[in-house]
Each structure stands twice: as structure tokens, then as C-alpha cells.
């Protein structure tokens, strides 16, 4: 994967396949403490304890469309290559949490990538999910709580073209100069 936003997209898609209805994603770029922190937490099916270590193996996948599952193993490799770590915690029937840490200044750390496009893609593909997103870098902070937006909209579906256009513009505006 070319950047961290693609790792986030991949793990979030895993959450959707695990029937999550709420997915929380946090990105903290902390230059002072020289760390990039990613957290993806869902309320999906969870992973059996006996299979939890297997998800880090590139030749393990629960998908039937292919025989490899590179997402988690590549993220773990990228974390470890930059002096960081990857931790996966899961409770069957309650959800999964993936926490990735990397050294911010490490020469091999992947760039964050196009988070605005990643976000809009996730929302557009899965409008029924209550996405909660938090991104912090220096003094800048962006929060997006789709559950709150849905409550404000009341009877108007989030997938209405006008609403999706507004969300896309809002995300792009938040990322200007980020």
C-alpha cells in the first residue's frame, strides 16, 4: 500500500464486512512526541481469540474471493519498520480495535495520503454506518460524527445527493491546509 489512508480504508472495510454499525477512526500526528497513531475501532462481530494472531499472517483471510489477506500484515510490517507496533484487540460479538503506532520522523514511514478521499469513499460506500472520525495534527483538528449529522437531518437520508455533496465539500474544506 502506498500510504496510510489506504491502510485505514482496508481496515475500515474489514469492519464493514464484520457487520459493524459504528466505526471510530482516530489519526493523531504528534510531531512533538515523534509518533503517528492510528486507531480503528468497531462494534462488529469481533474475532475469536484462537484466530486473533492469524489475522497478522498474510496467508490468512476469511474472504472466499482470494487466498491472501495482506492488509493487516502490511500495516504491521510498516509499523515495525518505523520503530512502531500494531496491536489488535477483539472480543467476539463486541468488536475489534486496531491500534497502529509509527515513528513520525522515520524515513520509511508512509505518507498519510488523501484522507479526504478515503473518508468520502467510506461514507458514500457505507452510508448506513455511524462513522466517527477524529484527526489531529499540531493545532489543527478535524472531527466528523456521522451519527450526529444523521440526527440533524432527521427524516432526510444521508445518501441523498445534496447531503452527500455537502459532506464532500465539508470534508474537503476541513482538509484545506491540513
Would you kindly provide a written description of the structure presented here, covering whatever features stand out?
By secondary structure, the chain is an alpha+beta fold. A six-stranded mixed β-sheet has the order 3-4-2-1-5-6. Helices cover 36% and strands 26% of the residues. It is built from six helices and six strands, in the order αββααββαββαα.
Order of helices and strands: HEEHHEEHEEHH
Helix content: 25-40%
- Which radius of gyration do the C-alpha atoms yield? 16 Å
Give the mean pLDDT: 90
Could you name the ranges where pLDDT drops below 50 across 5 or more consecutive residues?
Answer: none
Q: In total, how many beta strands?
A: 6
Main sheet attributes: strand count, strand direction, barrel closure: 6 strands, mixed
SS-derived structural category: alpha+beta
Strand order of the largest sheet: 3-4-2-1-5-6
Beta-strand proportion: 25-35%
Tally of separate helices: 6
Broad shape: globular
- Note the gap between the termini: 22 Å
Amino acid at each position: 500500500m502506498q500510504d496510510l489512508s489506504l491502510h485505514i480504508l482496508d481496515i475500515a472495510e474489514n469492519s464493514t464486512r464484520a457487520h459493524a454499525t459504528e466505526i471510530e477512526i482516530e489519526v493523531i500526528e504528534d510531531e512533538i512526541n515523534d509518533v503517528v497513531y492510528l486507531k480503528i475501532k468497531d462494534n462488529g462481530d469481533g474475532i475469536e481469540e484462537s484466530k486473533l494472531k492469524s489475522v497478522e499472517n498474510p496467508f490468512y483471510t476469511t474472504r472466499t474471493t482470494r487466498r491472501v489477506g495482506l492488509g493487516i500484515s502490511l500495516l504491521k510490517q510498516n509499523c515495525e519498520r518505523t520503530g512502531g507496533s500494531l496491536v489488535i484487540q477483539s472480543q467476539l460479538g463486541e468488536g475489534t480495535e486496531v491500534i497502529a503506532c509509527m515513528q513520525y520522523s522515520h524515513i520509511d514511514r508512509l505518507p498519510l495520503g488523501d484522507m479526504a478521499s478515503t473518508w468520502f469513499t467510506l461514507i458514500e460506500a457505507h452510508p448506513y454506518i455511524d462513522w466517527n472520525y477524529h484527526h489531529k495534527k499540531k493545532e489543527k483538528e478535524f472531527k466528523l460524527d456521522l451519527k450526529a449529522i444523521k440526527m440533524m437531518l432527521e427524516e432526510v437520508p444521508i445518501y441523498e445527493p445534496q447531503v452527500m455533496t455537502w459532506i464532500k465539500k465539508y470534508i474537503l474544506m476541513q482538509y484545506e491546509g491540513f
